[in-house]
Amino acid sequence: MSMTGELLFEQSSKDTLRLILSGRWKLEKDLPAADEVVRKLGDAPEVCNIDLEARGLDAWDSGLLVFLTDLRKFCSEKKIRLKGKNLPSGVLSMLKLAAAVPEKKDARKAEGRVTFLIDLGNQTVDFFRSCGDLLEFVGEATVAFSKLLRGKAQYRRSDLWLILESCSAQAVPIVTLISFLVGMILAFIGGIQLQMFGAQIYVADLVAIAMVRLMAAIMTGIVMAGRTGGAFAAQLGTMQVNQEIDALKTLGISPMEFLVLPRMLALALMMPLLALYANIMGILGGALVGMSMPGINLIQYYNQTVASLNLWHLGIGLFSSAVFGVIVALAGCMRGIQCGRSASAVGEAATSAVVTAIVGIILATAIITIITNMLGV
Amino acid sequence: MIAAKENIKEDAHIIVKDLTMAYGSFVVMQDLNFKINRGDVFIIMGGSGCGKSTMMTILIGLKSPAKGQVFYDDVDFWMTDEETRNRIIRRAGVMYQSGALWSSMTLEENLALPLETYTDLRPGQIHEVVKLKLSLVGLAGFEDFYPSEISGGMQKRAGIARAMALDPEILFFDEPSAGLDPVSARRLDDLIVQLSESLGTTMVVVTHELASIFTIGNNSVFLDASKRTMTAIGDPNKLLAETKDPALRLFLTRGEESSG
Questions:
Q1: Hey, where are the domains in chain A?
Q2: What phi-psi label fits residue B124: left (phi over 0), alpha (psi between -120 and 50 degrees) or beta?
Q3: Cβ distance of A247 and B86 shorter than 8 Å
Q4: pLDDT values of chain A reduced to their tens digit, one per residue, 377 residues
Q5: Domains contained in chain B, number
């Protein structure tokens, strides 16, 4: 085993530095770097010739080439004459190859230094632009929807059925689990407080109203945002990457009608059904906990639940869930259609679809709650 | 003289006039002027990154030019309203580089969609048309396959079949032979020539494959990335014999003559 590459300096005359390369010049940690020569030259500023000599060079690979290209670049900047002696012919031809096509200066991405203010400004401009994009997308979706009402929209019924299936029946298990648990959690937390006043029967009211009016819609919304919204974004994003969306456009088929509309429709139709189902599951979950409390049996719990609910609660809950369905579908489709043309862009689109949908759901909840509060229902 | 002039005008299918293509402020190509005649197999050629594919996206209406005009017959493609533009481009078929078949549909459904959308054919008739088009590209029997179940070359051929679904007047091909083995590439070239000869369809082919350029092209434009404009128009075989431009010569001879 030979030693790692070594670099020896010999000051052969006042203005000439001789570099002797020996040993194994392979890519390794301790390989000498061109910086060493630069430092050496710093001590001897009058040097204007460098003679390179390979003496006992055992083996070489890119390690030697990197050293030599660095050195050559430095020398040409400092106007130092570089001469090679005994260098392997392979090294020379590789260096020639590396220099064959000059570096394209303007090909480098203009990075430059971005100060905080420039960054803030860019972000602000981007934010407003994305708001504009959002409005544009919602507008186009509305136009597509009005075309659907007039029976003029182009989409495939079979697509609609497939999407309906994927965002209803296939979502039932996870919606069951989540809403059942949320019902139980509500009952536990409320039950502990209410028991202190001996009012544990009101657990039924608490669970019923909270689930039916709000929680079922929100929880299904969030589950669907993660499950279906992300999937929409990934599907449409992949179609964008594969130019499938371009292919639709050049055929004069609007991606809005063909891709977005069935998805939006499917979620807006199925979300209320899922929320209704989540209501039942949540109340069952609450009942399970409620019955474990002293002095409550199933009949009492049932009667109390029925007495506490009215149609307004149910109506507001179902309306919210339909709105959330549209939000989840729009967020997913918008991020998918805006997707860039790479694999990582598809991942980003899916993430951003989920985030957008959840933010949208929470905002919409706040707005609906404020309005219903003002209306006193 | 006037008659001759009119004749020329009738021949031109697509005219590109003073066209500049740009991404933001970055100009890709400028001062492009050329004419694609009816029935031509027209090659848009040039090195990688010279804007060939961008040129095609402008011609098929996916990206607007920074400056200049594109005429389809007498209609200014980018100045007219969207509806006219859609109508014009519907008479064209596009084969995308990757095939761009709709992955959630079978080949039959892929080909049927344009027919269902733009014709009043009965389902039985559509099935017949689809079968015919698939057999034209050598894919008879693959009607029920999904794009992911067939090879890359087959996807490209299926892409051509879909582009031909509506019997277009113009067919655009984006790098038809890229990523194919030599034999498949050759078959695809033959297919393009046969289609052009028997149907009289105008073909616009974006490519840098020399073998294809010389076999199928009878007219072409060369986009020079370093000069950011076009530097030659004409039959590629004639260009090879006559050109004095070193960049074009280098391109058409794979750089062999310059090193010799």
A1: 6-101, 129-375
A2: alpha
A3: no
A4: 457 788 888 888 888 888 888 888 888 878 888 888 888 888 877 888 888 888 888 888 888 888 888 888 888 888 888 888 888 888 888 888 888 777 766 655 656 678 899 999 999 999 999 889 889 999 999 999 999 999 888 888 888 999 999 888 899 999 999 999 999 999 999 999 998 998 889 999 999 999 999 999 999 999 999 999 999 999 999 999 999 999 998 888 889 999 999 999 999 999 999 999 999 999 999 999 999 988 889 999 999 999 999 999 999 999 999 999 999 999 999 999 999 888 899 999 999 999 999 999 999 999 999 999 999 88
A5: 1
User: What is the Cα A370 distance to its own chain's centre?
Assistant: 31
CATH class of A6-101: alpha beta
Q: Which of A243, A248, A337 to mutate to test the interface with B (most CBs of B within 10 A)?
A: A243
Name the token pair of B170: 């113009």
SS3 state at A28: coil
Considering only CB atoms, which chain B residues are within 8 Å of A250? 60-62, 89, 92, 94
A138 and A330 Cβ atoms separated by less than 8 Å? yes
Domain that holds residue B183: 38-68+91-259
Does B61 lie at the interface with A, CB-CB under 8 angstroms? yes
Distance CA A197, CA B69 (A): 80
**In a 3-state reduction of DSSP, which class is residue B40?**
coil
- Does any domain span residue B81? no
Tell me, what's the ipTM? 0.81
Tokens (6 digits) for A54: 């390979």
CATH code where residue B159 lies: 3.40.50.300
Domain annotation covers residue B24? no
Inside any domain, residue B8: no
Test B94 with A250 for CB contact under 8 angstroms.
Answer: yes
What backbone phi and psi angles, to 5 degrees, belong to A317? -60, -45
- Interface residue B96 vs chain A (CB under 8 A): yes
Distance from CA of B74 to the nearest CA of A (A): 20
Chain B, 224 to 253: residues with Cβ < 8 Å from chain A are none
Q: Is residue B192 part of a domain?
A: yes
